[in-house]
C-alpha cells in the first residue's frame, strides 16, 4: 500500500514537473522577445534598444546600483583594494596600481571610472578604453592597430558610449556576437572562428571579451590575450617567459614584473562548474520573471545577491547553507592570500637589501627571476574577482606556487649576499599509488 502510494506520488511529481517544463517551453516568450525589432546595423546607443527590449533594459540599468549586500569580498561599492590588502601596494611599487586600485563596480560606471582613476596620466594609451565601451569595434575598423597606442585623451571624443547592448548583440537579430577585436583576433589566431560559436560558448565568451588577462603587445601596444599555450596560470606565465614580456620594473627589487588583469574566464575554465557545463550567464544572468515574462537578467553583479535565481535551480540545500559554503572557500583563500602576499613582500625586501649591500649580481638576477614568478601567481589570485570561488582548486594551486617561489627568491637573495646556499630537499616524489608500487618493486 505504502509502496504504491509512493509510486503514485512520484508519477504525479513527474507529471507536474513535465507540465511546468511544457508550460515554460510553450509560453514562447523567449522566441518572441528575441526578434522584436530590426535595429539598424551599427546602432550603439542603449536608448534605441530600450524601446524594443524594455525588460532587459530595466535589469541592465540595475548595474548602477551600489551595494555590497550579501557579499563578503565582492560587491559594487568602490572600496580601495590597497587598504584591504596592504601587500598589494608593496608588490606594485613603481607602477600605477600602487597609486590607485579599486574594487570593480557595475558596467554603467566604466567610462566614469576609467576617466577618473589616478592610474591614467597624460601619457596613457588608448588601449585603456578597450573594455569600457561599445565604440571600440568601429574605432578599430577606422584606425586599425594604430588605435591601441594612440594617446588616451585624443580619443576621448570618439568614445561616446559605455558598455551597451551592441557589445554582445547583433542589432538586427539580437543574436549573441563577439564584437571586441582582441577576442576576435585571439580566437582566429588559435584556429577558432568567432562567428561559429555555439550559444553555450557565447554565454561565456561574450564575457571573455573583457573579463580576461591581457597585455599590450609590441610597439603598437595591441591588446592581446596570451592564450597560445593554453589558459591556465602556468600556460600564461610560460607564454610571458618565452616572450620576455614585462609591464614595468619594480621600484625596490628591480625585477621586470608582470601585472595580471581580472582573469575570470581563465580561472573559471576547468572548474567544477565549467566542467558541469555551466556558463558565466548561468550564474550572472539567471532567468528571472519580469512583468510576467521570463527574461535573462542583465544585472551583472555578485550572484550572492540573487542566489534563488542563480543557484537554487540546481542546488537544493538551502540558500543560507550554500552561501556559507561559498564563504568557507573565500575565507580560506583570503587568509592564505594574505600570508602568501606578505611573504612576497619579504622576498622583495630581501632582494632590495642584498642589492644595497652589493651582493653577487648573477645570483641576484636568479632571485629576481624567482620573485617575478611568485608575484605573478599571487597577483593572479588578487586580480581575479571571485576570491577563489570560480575555481578553488586552481586558486590554491596558484597560491602554493607563489609561496614556493617567494621562499626560493628569499633563499637566493640570502645566498647572493652571504655566499651560503640554503640546503634544498628536491626529490621526485612518486605521488600516485601505482607509481609508488612501481618504485617499491624496483627496489626489492
Ligand atoms: C555582456 C553581454 C551582453 C550585453 C552587453 C547585453 N546582453 Fe542581452 N543577452 C546576453 C546573453 C548572454 C543572453 C542570453 C542569450 C541566450 O542564452 O541565448 C542575452 C539575452 C538577451 C535577449 C534574449 C531574451 C532573454 O532575455 O534571454 C534580449 C532580448 C537581450 N539580451 C537584450 C539586451 C539588451 C536590450 C541589452 C542592452 C540594454 C543587452 N541585451 C545587453 C548578453 C548581453
Ligand atoms: C566590454 C567589456 C565587458 C564585457 C563584454 C563584460 N564586462 Fe563585466 N565588467 C567590465 C568592466 C570594465 C567592469 C568594471 C567596471 C567598473 O568598475 O567601473 C565589469 C564589471 C563586472 C562585474 C562586477 C559588478 C559589480 O557590481 O561589482 C560583474 C559581475 C561582471 N562585470 C560580469 C560580467 C559578465 C557575466 C559578462 C558577460 C555576460 C560581462 N561582465 C561582460 C567589462 C565588461
Ligand atoms: C557557479 C556560478 C558562477 C559562474 C558560472 C561564474 N561566476 Fe562569477 N561569481 C560567482 C560568485 C559566487 C562570485 C563571488 C561574488 C561575491 O564574492 O560577492 C562571483 C564573482 C564574480 C565577479 C566579481 C563580482 C563582484 O561582486 O565584484 C565577476 C566580475 C565575475 N564573477 C565574472 C564571471 C565570469 C566572467 C564568469 C565566466 C567566465 C563567471 N563569473 C562565472 C559565481 C559564478
Ligand atoms: C546548472 C547547475 C548549477 C548551478 C546554477 C550552480 N551550481 Fe554549484 N554545482 C553544480 C554541480 C553539478 C556541482 C558539483 C557537484 C556537487 O557538488 O553537487 C556544484 C558544486 C558547487 C559547490 C561545491 C564545489 C565547490 O567548487 O566548492 C559549491 C560551493 C557551489 N556549487 C556553489 C554554487 C553557487 C553559489 C551557485 C550560484 C551562484 C551555484 N553553485 C550554481 C551545479 C550548479
TrEMBL record:
GO terms for molecular function: heme binding; metal ion binding; nitrite reductase (cytochrome, ammonia-forming) activity. Keywords: Calcium, Heme, Iron, Metal-binding, Oxidoreductase, Signal. Its main location: other. It comes from the Bacteria. It catalyses: 6 Fe(III)-[cytochrome c] + NH4(+) + 2 H2O = 6 Fe(II)-[cytochrome c] + nitrite + 8 H(+). The keyword Heme applies. Pfam families: Cytochrom_C552. Its EC number is 1.7.2.2. InterPro entries: Cyt_c552 (IPR003321), Multihaem_cyt_sf (IPR036280). Gene3D superfamilies: Butyryl-CoA Dehydrogenase, subunit A, domain 3, Flavocytochrome C3, Chain A. GO terms for cellular component: outer membrane-bounded periplasmic space. It is found in: Cell envelope. It is an enzyme of class 1 (oxidoreductase). One of its GO terms (biological process) is anaerobic electron transport chain. Belongs to the cytochrome c-552 family. This is nitrite reductase (cytochrome; ammonia-forming). It comes from Desulfitobacterium dichloroeliminans (strain LMG P-21439 / DCA1).
Amino acid at each position: 500500500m505504502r509502496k504504491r502510494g509512493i509510486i503514485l506520488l512520484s508519477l504525479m511529481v513527474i507529471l507536474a514537473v513535465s507540465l511546468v517544463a511544457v508550460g515554460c517551453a510553450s509560453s514562447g516568450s523567449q522566441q518572441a522577445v528575441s526578434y522584436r525589432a530590426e535595429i539598424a546595423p551599427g546602432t550603439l546607443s542603449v536608448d534605441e534598444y530600450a524601446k524594443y527590449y524594455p525588460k532587459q533594459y530595466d535589469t541592465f540599468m540595475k548595474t548602477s546600483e551600489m551595494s555590497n549586500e550579501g557579499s563578503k569580498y565582492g560587491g559594487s561599492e568602490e572600496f580601495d583594494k590597497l587598504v584591504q590588502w596592504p601587500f598589494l601596494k608593496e608588490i606594485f611599487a613603481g607602477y600605477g596600481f600602487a597609486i590607485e586600485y579599486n574594487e570593480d563596480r557595475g558596467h554603467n560606471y566604466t567610462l566614469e571610472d576609467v576617466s577618473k582613476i589616478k592610474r591614467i596620466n597624460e601619457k596613457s594609451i588608448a588601449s585603456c578604453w578597450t573594455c569600457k565601451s561599445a565604440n571600440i569595434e568601429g574605432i578599430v575598423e577606422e584606425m586599425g592597430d594604430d588605435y591601441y597606442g594612440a594617446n588616451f585623451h585624443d580619443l576621448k571624443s570618439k568614445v561616446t558610449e559605455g558598455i551597451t547592448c551592441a557589445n554582445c548583440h547583433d542589432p538586427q537579430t539580437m543574436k549573441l556576437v563577439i564584437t571586441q577585436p582582441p577576442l576576435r583576433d585571439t580566437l582566429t589566431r588559435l584556429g577558432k572562428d568567432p562567428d561559429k560559436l555555439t550559444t553555450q560558448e557565447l554565454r561565456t565568451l561574450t564575457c571573455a571579451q573583457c573579463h580576461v588577462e591581457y597585455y599590450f603587445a609590441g610597439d603598437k601596444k595591441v591588446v592581446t590575450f596570451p592564450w597560445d599555450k593554453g589558459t591556465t596560470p602556468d600556460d600564461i606565465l610560460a607564454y610571458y617567459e618565452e616572450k620576455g614580456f614585462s609591464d614595468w620594473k619594480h621600484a625596490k627589487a628591480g625585477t621586470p614584473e608582470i601585472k595580471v588583469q581580472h582573469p575570470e574566464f581563465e580561472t573559471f575554465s576547468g572548474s567544477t562548474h565549467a566542467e558541469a557545463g555551466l556558463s558565466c550567464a548561468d550564474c550572472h544572468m539567471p532567468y528571472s520573471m519580469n512583468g510576467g515574462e521570463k527574461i535573462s537578467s542583465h544585472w551583472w553583479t555578485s550572484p550572492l545577491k540573487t542566489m534563488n535565481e542563480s543557484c537554487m535551480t540546481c542546488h537544493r540545500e538551502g540558500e543560507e547553507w550554500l552561501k556559507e559554503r561559498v564563504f568557507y572557500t573565500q575565507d580560506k583563500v583570503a587568509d592564505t592570500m594574505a600570508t602568501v602576499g606578505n611573504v612576497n613582500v619579504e622576498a622583495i625586501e630581501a632582494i632590495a637589501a642584498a642589492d644595497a649591500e652589493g651582493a653577487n649580481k648573477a645570483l641576484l638576477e636568479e632571485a629576481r627571476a624567482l620573485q617575478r614568478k611568485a608575484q605573478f601567481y599571487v597577483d593572479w589570485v588578487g586580480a581575479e574577482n571571485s576570491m577563489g570561488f570560480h575555481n578553488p582548486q586552481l586558486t590554491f594551486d596558484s597560491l602554493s606556487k607563489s609561496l614556493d617561489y617567494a621562499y626560493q627568491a628569499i633563499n637566493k637573495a640570502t645566498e647572493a649576499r652571504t655566499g651560503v646556499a640554503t640546503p634544498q630537499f628536491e626529490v621526485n616524489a612518486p605521488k600516485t599509488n601505482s607509481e609508488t608500487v612501481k618504485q617499491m618493486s624496483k627496489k626489492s
